[in-house]
Amino acid sequence: MAAASGRYLEFLFDHANVMVIADTVRYVPDPSLRPSGRYQMKLACDPQGQVSIQCAGDDGMIVIGLAQWRDSALCDRKQQGGEPDDFQWIALEDALRAELSRAP
Questions:
Q1: What is the C-alpha separation between 6 and 8, in angstroms, rounded?
Q2: DSSP for 3-58?
Q3: Which secondary-structure segment (H or E) carries 87?
Q4: Rounded to whole angstroms, how far apart are CA atoms 1 and 104?
Q5: CB proximity list for 58: less than 8 A, separation 6 or greater
Q6: Cβ neighbours of residue 82 under 8 Å, at least 6 residues apart?
Q7: Which residue, among 66, 69, 75, 95, has the nearest Cα to 4 in the 3D structure?
Q8: Integer Rg of the chain from CA
């Protein structure tokens, strides 16, 4: 699969339930789409396959992880602090793969 299939994709992911939160998948940037709970993260993948993982902070959104979507995997992962942990990276990768396969 090419980098994000030439499409932009973002969604909220809930790690407590290990799932994409219903009705949060977007194909254009949506700054109003923000995590509302401690276990939620926002994943955004641009058409070039650059991925950012964000969580809500006191003063807005905080980027906690960066990666490159390549060969149906999150590659070149970088993060600040302890999250996303290995389990979260795997869950986010699986969710991104699934959402990209459904993208119009």
A1: 7
A2: GGGG--EEEEEETTTTEEPTT--BSS--TT----STTEEEEEE-TT-EEEEEEEET
A3: helix 86-102
A4: 14
A5: none
A6: none
A7: 69
A8: 12
> ∠ CA 60-81-86 to the nearest 5 degrees?
110
Q: What is the pLDDT of residues 33-63, one digit of tens each?
A: 999 888 999 999 999 999 999 998 888 899 9
Query: Is residue 76 within 8 Å of 41, Cβ to Cβ?
Result: no
Structure tokens at 72: 């149906």
CA distance 86 to 75: 13
- Band (pLDDT 50/70/90 cuts) for residue 4 is low
Q: Are 90 and 15 in contact (CB under 8 A)?
A: no
d(CA 17, CA 39): 9
